[in-house]
Amino acid sequence: HVRDAVRFLDGIRALEAAGVTTYVEIGPDGVLSALAQDCVTRDAAFVPVLRAARPDAEAETATTALAHAYTRGIPLDWRAYFAATAAGARRVDLPTYPFQSRRHWPEPATARTGPAQDGSAGSETDARFWDVVERADLTALADQLAIDGDQPLSAVLPALSAWRREQRAQERADSLLYRVTWQPWSGEDRGTPATAGGTWLVPVPAAQAADPWVRALTDRVSGDGTRILPLPLDVADGDPAVLRTHLDEALREAAAAGGPVTGVLSLLALDERPHPEHPAVPVGLALTAALASVLTGPDGPAGCADAPLWCVTRDAVAAVPGDTLGGAAQSQVWGLGRVVALEHPDRWGGLVDLPEACDERALSRLPAVLTGAGDEDQLALRAAGPFVRRLVHAPSTGVGPAPRWTPAGTVLITGGTGALGRHVARRLAERGAQRLVLVSRGGADAPGADEVRAELEALGAAVTLAACDVTDRNALEALVAGLAADGTPVRTVVHAAGVSQPPGTHTDLPGFARVVTAKTAGAVHLDALFDAPDSLDAFVLFSSIAGVWGSGGQGAYAAANTFLDALAERRAARGLAATAIAWGPWADAGMATEGDAEEQLSRRGLPPVDPRTNLLALERALAGRDAAVTVASVDWERFAPVFAAARPRPLVGDLPEVRAALREQAPGAATSATADPSADVLRELTELSGDDRGAALLDLVREHAAAALGHPSADAVAADRAFKDLGFDSLTAVELRNRLGAACGLRLPSSLVFDYPNPEALTRHLLRTLFPEGGGGTAGAAGMEIDTDPQDVELRRTLATIPMGRIREAGLLDTLLRLAGPDAPGTDTGAGAAADPGGSIDEMDLQDLLDLALDGGGDLDEDTPGNTTSNSNF
How confident is the model over 133-155, as pLDDT tens digits? Predict the structure, then answer.
């Protein structure tokens, strides 16, 4: 270290030349392992024995290192390893048994038709390189490798190796880039009727009911046998109970006039006024979310059980050149709608955007879309025709490496001390950024802030840790003005602040608003503060794939991130700097680090991406021309069949990998909106009776549960094992609900696996629902008893009409179960036993039971502890 160069690179290359493929580092940390990975040219494994970041797990880390080495073929003295244990260890003979045939090793990957994932042979980069070699073009080769053509081979080889690694990294980053496009819809000329037909319920903002644009739309839809039933709604109507009352009244009116409604055409998104209690949430978004919740809830209003929900927006998407996105706030309804489409595919109609100007040619196409869109559920109607939304691979940024992102001046990073903000700040410091301002609520007091500052300053950047709530316009404006006054004006903005929404949470308005506000309020303020031409070199917004194609149980998060994409496109339309990046999961950052989230995401086809690759993809995106870009590693072979299990998803249907995956999908997967797989299932079950019917249905439940969890067969799902223990979460619960609903032709709640805890219980429920008379048999699956007493059958029919989710939330379900159990009224003489007004539960009808449960103190207060499963509050 003192007299001569260490020549670490030369040492590793010498070992590689000698055939070494596994390197074990014995030291206080894995520093050398990290460095050596950039020195090798072939696949190799680096095994650090100790990790400084894990001082409390030295034994585990060392054992992991031994195991890693062992799997690489390194012989270990296991006798010595176990000698120090309390009981020691010895070899034993295993009992003989038939080997299980399930394979745990990955199958060889099939050829992909999309961009190269790893820069392997045959890529565009390789073709360019070998073309230069074949032409013996020394100048071109020297330019590609960035070397002097007169240098000796000893200098060329390292340069060639470094160039190769860089090209592979760039190609990998390019393979993660997608963008949304709008394509002309070819389905307009399929002979669809020019009118919607039937009766359409049209929820409309009360303040805009008489607006000429709204009147023109409703007048165009009505007529020629189509009846419009307007339903004006305002802020106070967002309460679920109030909204339910209005819907019931409107549906009674529709029934009196001729029958149930044909569809629901919501214009609520047009109300862009800030909600009086939650200013960052438009009134139209809050009302739309409440409407979707009530319509799709387990106790949805009668009279529109099969009516699809369509949502209309105005200038909320950039479908054709010239679109200004004046209704960018309405774009949040598109994000929410994509989530509703995933959670309730049977009730979803679609999203339709109309132009700002009241164009007759665009309006004339709306009735045909409402009745003849087929699988399409995301459309924009313009004077030039109808357009449909598609996800495609982003075009390459061009030949050669993209310019490195080296911002000049001051860079403002919101969420700067968070996981993603730190990664961005570190990359910019490595690229030579002069000044970094990391903004967070805690500022210098944020966890780990001192370490971040020290690391960035060591890289040569001047660092400011600013305490500022970006949702506070005045505070943010004061920060920006102060930087300008100090002579360090902001030239680059990276908005990475926000809060995540775990699936299935924040279904009430305050929680919903918290997620939306954290993402959108800061972006709106930053947009307003930097709205002058040439005020910024870059304006980068971090959004999420939840807004691009939806994510079950994340309606608020999807709505907020969709707005960020629209905001970037609106800025770009005004000639301002803007790039929105819709990120997929990050490795070692964000929600992917929580519990087994990384494993679950990978199993669904969304493996988290390491930060360095993501940051390189960010640079590649900034070098392109798209204002909104998606960056995600998607295993479409896994993701596409599940994504399209409940209904076709044309959004991703044009990707070559998706077409290939859906062609090879397992039999029984949904491939068209008109397919009815439930008919065959019901016919087969009807032909069976008794134990055979129950066993067949149990096999069906286990088969679909195994598919939802990623198991190869139903053998992995025990009939009596709890769904929770099997690994079900809110996302897989929705997937199982969708699968069983499609297979059995039923509308099932997303809380299915939480209401019926194991496959046997769920099978009993499905048997009672499909065959309420008992079907001539008295036994179900695996010996499950199915009551066929007429009085019990009638009781079940009545119970089927009761919103069991509401009963559970009110604290009544436990009371009812206690009444029906061994501690029924009259049998419990202990303290606190419930009085028995009926003498025996067998002699009581359903109303008696509910009255008794209510008298027992069922708490209907929404703030009752434990009331966390409700979707009805919003």
Answer: 666 667 777 776 677 766 776 66
